[in-house]
Amino acid sequence: MGYYSQVGFAFQGKENIEKWNNIVNDNSNLQDFLESADRYEILENDCLVWFDGVKWYDGDPDVLLIETFRNSLEFKDYLFICLGEDITDNEYYGQYYSNTFNLGWERKIVF
Predict the structure, then answer these.
(1) Can you give the pTM of this predicted structure?
(2) Which of 7, 22, 59, 104 would give a disulfide with 51, using CB separation of 3.0 to 4.6 Å?
């Protein structure tokens, strides 16, 4: 079964999108991985990758490609959110808060 996470990754910039497209086009396994995304959208100046339930492991080659690309971006140009099944397993990187897709993380108490 495994451990599943919600993962959202949005980034901006035509140069970044061109670089991303080159990485994706050069890797058929990554293409297959992205086809399993719940939402994968590339606009003229923005890109969104969204998984509502994915096995996101550091050792996975596709995850490594995405994280290597993410680490090459300026902090202001991306937003990356990974919420694991465990309440303490959360990652939040980047400052692209006003992204086209309204990707964000909402915290609230419910009852």
Answers:
(1) 0.93
(2) 7
